[in-house]
Amino acid sequence: MPMNQQIIDVEIWRGDRSGTYHSYQVPRNTRQTILDVVTYIQRELDSTLSYRFSCRVGMCGTCAMTVNGVPRWTCRTQAAVFDNESRIRIAPLRNFPVIKDLVVDMDNFFEKLDKASGDLNSGQAESKVFAQIRPNSPKRKAVDRAIECIGCGVCHAACDVVKWNPDYLGPAALNRTWSLVNDERDKNQSDLFRGTATVSGCLSCHTTRSCTSYCPKELDPSGSIAGLKQQIFRSLI
Prior knowledge:
Fumarate Reductase Iron-sulfur Protein, Chain B, domain 2, alpha+beta, five-stranded mixed beta sheet, 9 helices, 2 domains, two-stranded antiparallel ribbon
């Protein structure tokens, strides 16, 4: 590293749940992302560092990590955002079991999507004819944003209820249920309500809106959960 090269002080979580932070110094570059920082450390300083990434352009969400206490997509987060802070601390996503370093086990996250009846049930045999939904229908408009979720887990990591109650389905799973409740093709409405109208479902949401605040795609899982609550109460009337 050149003598006059500016550096960034970085701390990265190493090990499993019982691991600790290790310190590194990374040269500062123009338009450098947090993912660039992690990649430099893995390629130049410590090849044993484990982390996930794929597209590098803010499409897949696999590079999500906790950066200075906030869940983020690291490919979209500029290192310069933290210029006024003493160091950059990078950790695995909260509320997920840590496999190694920055890699978390997302099996339970996807299992919760299944528990929330997150699959479409049209009630029809397989057909090559596509069902048609009017783009201006009220229900279609209600889920315009909800269907854009890509399952990156940031909302799950940001959710305090998930932290307090490991059985809680979480924002992503309930957001998926909301999209199906408003899908005119779905014939599984009673199962959808049965799967989410529980203490582990939408009734446990405290509406702190952390999931909405940190969603990288600017979706509103908190609004979806509120809509689910309303639909459930209406179904009881």
